[in-house]
Amino acid sequence: MGxxxxxxxxxxxxxxxxxxxxxxxxxxxxxSLIIAIILFALLxxxxxxxxxxxxxxxxxVVLFCIVITVFFIIICIRKETIQLRYxxxxxxxxxxxxxxxxxLFFRPGNQTYQSINLVPFSTIAFYLTGKLNGLISFxxxxxxxxxxxxxxxxxxxxxxxxxxxxxxxxxxxxSIELLQYFxxxxxxxxxxxxxxxxxxxxxxxxxxxxxxxxxxxxxIKKIRTTNW
Length: 228
Prior knowledge:
The protein has helices spanning 2-47, 57-78, 86-105, 122-128, 134-146, 149-157, 162-183, 190-205, 207-213, and strands at 82-85, 116-117, 188-189, 214-217. The protein is mainly alpha-helical.
């Protein structure tokens, strides 16, 4: 009964968010989806290679990233802004985190990895040598940074202190690296740690750009009925 209520609760919030988006900027969202789907279709034969060592959900994550990127570009061009409730921002981040953990801990064919690299920048240098598939190399470098940008935005939205900006990313990423290693779902790599933490910082620094498009209403303030 409790799980059912949670499902309906999440579904109701997502439905409300979608309805608000449709009411406020239906054209921008529709155009973003069309462009993103076309780009995804054109790149599908290349992107499908990622499923050889990652959970198929990676294709959904890539499509989501394309949609968001195109949507942001269109919103910037049209000079529009979105008002987003803090609670809805947290819900979207929670759903994103779940998808991220599926991507990190569920491998096709129960693949296992238990290698260790404690030499900084050695793995990054290997990816840049061109000895590995170009798409795989690009994904490992770009994704290790980009996938953690939303968490940096979250820290900025919550106005964390300088101390929190350092210890939260370090603890979060360290926990993921150790958990991946001990479960055999990923290697323990100092370069992954460096790229992930950099993703946090990049998200934190990119907040002014994010805030120009999406304004998250602080949870301590009264929310107007016109907001999400």
